[in-house]
C-alpha cells in the first residue's frame, strides 16, 4: 500500500492530526486541509488516490463538494466523515457518489481498514482502465492515449467509443449499443451520423484504419492486427 496519496478535509485540527498520523504509519503520503477552498487548490496540483472528507466544513457543505469531485474525478474513492448519523444524510451522501461513510466517533483501526479496502478496489478498477493493444497504450483513468512516443488528444465522445471498442475487441459492437452508451445525456434522439463522424475522427486521429473496422449493417469492431 506504499506511495498512495490521500487528501483529508477535516476542520477539527486534533482529529486531522490523528488521521494523518495513523495513515502515514501505513506508508501513505497524506495531505490534510481544513477548508473546501484549500481542498480545491490541492486538487489542482495533484490527484489523490482517496479523499477523506468531513461533511460540515467552515466554508461549505462537504456533500456539495462531493458532488463536484465525483463529476470531475469519478475514479477517486471518497469516504465521508460526519458527526451526524441520520439516515437521510447517509443516503444523500451515498446517492451523490460517496464510496463509504463513517460516523464520529470511530475507531482509527476500522477507518484504516476501510481506507485500504477502497484503495484495493480502486486499484482493481484502475487496472481495467489500462489497455495495451496492437502497439497502442490507452490509459483511460489518466486520459493518456499513445502509440510509441506519439500522444493523441481525444474528445470525451471519442474516449467513450474507444473504451467500448477495445474492451470488446474482436467482437462487433452494434451501432445502437454504442449510441446508447456514448450519448447518455438523456437526449430523445441522436442522429446516427454523429456516430459515423465520431468513428471517422477517432480512426483518423489514431491512424487505426486497420483496427477500427466497420461491420456494414451492424456496427464497429476493434480488430486486432495479425
Task: Please outline what is shown here.
43% of the residues lie in helices and 23% in strands.
Name the descriptors.
226 residues; Arc Repressor Mutant, subunit A; five-stranded parallel beta sheet; four-stranded antiparallel beta sheet
How would a crystallographer describe the biggest sheet?
A: 5 strands, parallel
How much of the sequence lies in strands comes to 15-25%
**What count of domains describes the coordinates?**
2
**Approximate shape:** elongated
CATH class wording of the largest domain: Alpha Beta
The number of helices is 8
String of helices and strands: EHEHEEEHEHEHEEEEHEHHEE
Portion of residues within helices? 40-55%
How many runs of DSSP E, i.e. beta strands?
14
Radius of gyration in whole Å, from Cα?
21 Å
CATH homologous superfamily annotation of the largest domain = Response regulator
Strand order of the largest sheet: 2-1-3-6-7
Reported CATH architecture of the largest domain: 3-Layer(aba) Sandwich
Poorly predicted runs of 5 or more residues: none
Mean pLDDT: 86
Descriptive report:
Helix content is 43%, strand content 23%. It contains 8 helices and 14 strands. The chain has helices at 13-24, 36-45, 62-72, 87-95, 108-127, 156-167, 175-182, 192-206; strands spanning 5-9, 29-33, 50-54, 56-57, 60-61, 78-82, 100-103, 130-133, 136-139, 144-147, 150-152, 173-174, 212-215, 219-222. Strands 2-1-3-6-7 form a 5-stranded parallel β-sheet, sandwiched between helices. A 4-stranded antiparallel β-sheet has the order 8-9-10-11, with helices on one face. Strands 12-14-13 form a 3-stranded antiparallel β-sheet. α6 (156-167) crosses α8 (192-206). The longest helix has 20 residues, at 108-127. It is elongated and about 65 Å long. It starts with a strand and ends with a strand. The model has no long low-confidence stretch (mean pLDDT 86).
